[in-house]
Amino acid sequence: MSRRVGVKSGDFCALALACTPVQAADHRFELIPIALQRGCVETSNRFLCDRAARELGQPFVVENRPGAGGNIGADYVAKQPADGYTIMITSIGMATNPALYAKLAYDPVKDFAPISLLAVVPNVLVVNAARSPDTSVQDVLAHARRNPGKLSYASAGNGTSIHLAGEVFASTAGVALMHVPYKGSGPAITDMLGGQVDLMFDSITSARPHIQSGKLRALGVTTAKRSSALPDVPTIAEAGLPGYEVSPWFAVFAPAGTPPQVVARLNQVLNGAMQQPDTLKKLESVGAEPIGSTPQALATHLQQELARWGKLIKERGIRLD
Question: Rounded distance, CA 251 to CA 118, Å?
Fold first, then answer.
């Protein structure tokens, strides 16, 4: 009788691995993407899963469980047996959702076993190249200060990394921006191209084609380091707003109580896959910057991110329910 393995993901991909001392040949692994950036997820998720499947000699099954900013998929995985057959690859939402939602059915720390950080996919501050007079981050800051609350920025929805990148920008600079949420990055980009909104902190995955075509002007990436996908674009910090940094990340978790040897094996497989030339090329194609980590490093990172985003979201009065 075959055993299915469930995996959930929040903004990047999801993947499941069984690594018990004895594995039946007919065991299957289940991949459960939930609230991810599509271009990045569909490309990278399946690629990493294929890599892991070859390494482990076991098939993976994809099962989509989207909804509520990743909460539905996370709750599902949290309640699965901690037997090594269900894991998730999720996003920065793991750290922001506890502050965005009044109540969650799971605890991001107590209900999961950290496996590894996977990658960062930078956001990039863009303006309409044909319509915007702003050619630098400093221009945007000056524009915002001359017109308090009138400079608009689009996002893929309330609470998304695109929205929060704008909130960090406004908070760090001490300026007021007008947030215009959309139902996804696609409609937001459409209005950006049409000149209906002034700027956007879009994912590099979806913004890069429009930057390369000359329709959007890239002013700065949100991460602490420049992106290899847009090496000539400065970071927002170096372009005029010191201290600014937003790094949308993706990581792998299993249900709490998953055996340490399973955690160690999955960490080994994923970190190894992330360093393969073909994996690096695939990740680069969607603007992802591979990082990798130990389980403890991910646990520490999550705690730091929970504190950071909890403080910002409370200060900015952001709620989703």
Answer: 5
Torsion of CA 50, 54, 55, 61, to 10 degrees: 50
The string of DSSP letters for 222-276 reads SSSS--TTSTTSPBTTTTT-TT-----EEEEEEETT--HHHHHHHHHHHHHHHTS
Q: Compute the radius of gyration of the chain from its Cα atoms.
A: 20
Give phi and psi for 36, each to the nearest 5.
-110, 170
Query: Which candidate, 100, 114, 95, 91, places its Cα nearest to that of 40?
Result: 91
For residue range 235-288, list pLDDT tens digits in order: 999 999 999 999 999 999 999 999 999 899 989 988 988 888 888 888 888 889
The residue with tokens 């674009």 is 233
271: β partners: none
Q: Which two tokens stand for residue 241?
A: 């707003």
d(CA 7, CA 301): 21
CA distance 194 to 176: 23
Q: Name 104's Cβ contacts closer than 8 Å, sequence gap at least 6.
A: 71, 75, 97, 98
HSE of 319, CA atoms in CB hemisphere, 13 A: 4
Which one, of 249, 183, 21, 8, lies nearest residue 111 by Cα?
8
